[in-house]
Amino acid sequence: MTTLLNIPETTLRHVWQQQCFNASALRTSDGKIVEILSPGDPNTDGGPDFLNARIRVGEVTYYGDVELHRDARSWAEHHHEADSHYNRIILHVVLTAESIPPQVRTKSGRAVPLLVLHPFLDETLLGTLSTSLFADQGTEGRPIRCRDVNDTVPVEAMLTWIEKLAWERIELKVRRFEERLKQLIDEERQPVREPHPQYFGNPDEIPVPHKSYTRIDFAARKHWEQLLYEGIMEGLGFSKNRTPFLALAQSVRLEVLRQQGLTDTEAMMGILFGAAGLLPSTRTLADPEARKYVRTLRKRWSTFRPTYKGRILNGADWLFFRLRPANFPTARLAAFCFLLPTLFGKDTLKILVAAFKNADPPRRIIRNLCSVFSFEPDEFWQCHYHFEERTTAPAVRLGHSKQLDLIINVLLPVVMLYARVFNDQDLRSNAREVLSRVPGSQRNAFIRKMERELIKGKTKTHYALQEQGLMQLYRFYCSPGRCTECAVGERVPWLNNPNS
User: Fold this and answer.
1) Most buried residue among 116, 132, 210, 444 by CB atoms closer than 10 A?
2) Could you give phi then psi for residue 150, rounded to 5 degrees?
């Protein structure tokens, strides 16, 4: 039993996902029959280990999440009973448990069934669990297939391919913004009330309605600024909180904030933190300064709340797990509140487009764009990442790498879309030139992996465009194994030989 307690939880997750046990005989700790209809989807972020599982316990079929531990006591040790992210747990799965395991509950107070796996594992599996058979491969996954054979591929060919993929990735961003812009236009169009047409024959032959858009449709400034507003908010969420940040921006529209006064930062904080579900109860705060600050924001939110018709998010929608404090959603949302007057106080789109119309060199344009993301936080956010405790480090700010990230993923694609919509070839050319000169900033695990296994020091990836190309290459070619369609893979043909 001691050996089982030393098994990594990554191994336990593999056992659960692959159903490496006698699934036909499963019983909960209180004797109810367990039937696993779907083990769920692995979760690599904070929260439960598997999401959206479907499991029958006794006569009831549940749809929700599954949490795995080596022993039953870990639920309390990890304080899951106080974490709303675990309110959807339908089954607590452990390798071992005491003879009479304690009853665990979610924060909402619901009891969670317990499944102890040890009695249902066969002897062969028990003998291999403590080995490296299911060793974790780390966040970067397996090596790319051509790692050991791509040394002969000329670096020029690699760079040409990477640049082509980079522009494909940028084009995907532009098209995504275009689709959202059209949605915003459609939302404002008044529905045309006509009698329902009578169709006869095969329904599959009925033509799909075609929507057309003119320059006049695209001329409304508010649609473009809402597009920028949503893009920046989503970008502040990084990979883990992009969805709730975007949902918040689409629920609390920029026009609504403008009506309250963008320069009233206190009001912006109250509205956005309130709609985000991130305003804590003052009773939970030990720090008098934090209680006073939150009390003020809650008053602003309560004043605004009766007129608000949008969605109110829940604290459980946001992830803090495995994030650096500077990237906490509370810190990012506070930063955005300080940025609102600068970003949207004037004719944002006109100023942004004008930045590419002058004869400034790309480096100066990039520097000017970075300056719009500079701000000075108030006294509270100078020493807080969230509402619970103070920090001695500089807290709420946007570093240079994040500024560059927003430029290449939001500002430049929107400008390129504007140039396309209004057929401004000079603007398009200038935007592409600036984009090609933005310094690299995303030194994430996948870029480091591609530099290590593909580039191998043959050249330096100084620019963000090269990073975009490497991410596109890994995501759409290396990861799914599309080597026959890759300009690097086609130069090492043995990769495509099934007998190799």
Assistant:
1) 116
2) -95, 10
Give 451-480 pLDDT, tens digit per residue.
Answer: 999 999 998 888 999 999 999 999 999 988
> Residue 476's pLDDT is what?
93
CA distance 232 to 249: 9
- Of 166, 158, 169, 163, residue with least CA distance to 457: 158
Structure confidence at residue 122 (pLDDT): 65
Instruction: Provide the pLDDT for residue 45.
Output: 75
> Using alpha carbons only, what angle is made at residue 202 by residues 197 and 206, rounded to the nearest 5 degrees?
45
Tokens in use for 41?
């989807």
Under the banding of pLDDT at 50, 70 and 90, the label for residue 1 is very low
- Domain segments of the chain: what residues? 2-128, 150-160+442-496, 216-421
Q: Which of residues 14 and 288 earns the better pLDDT score?
A: 288
Amino acid 231: pLDDT: 97
| Distance of alpha carbon 233 from alpha carbon 254, whole angstroms | 11
Calculate helix-pair angle for 425-435, 412-421, nearest 10 degrees: 160
| Helix (H), strand (E), coil (C) string for 82-113 | HCHHHCCEEEEEEEECCCCCCCEECCCCCEEC
- pLDDT score recorded for residue 132: 39
Q: What are phi and psi of 412, to 5 degrees?
A: -65, -45
> What local confidence, expressed as pLDDT, does residue 17 receive?
83
135 has a pLDDT exceeding 80: no
Residues whose CB falls within 8 Å of the CB of residue 112, separated by 6 or more in sequence, listed in order: 75, 89, 90, 91, 92, 104, 105, 106
In residues, how long is the chain? 500
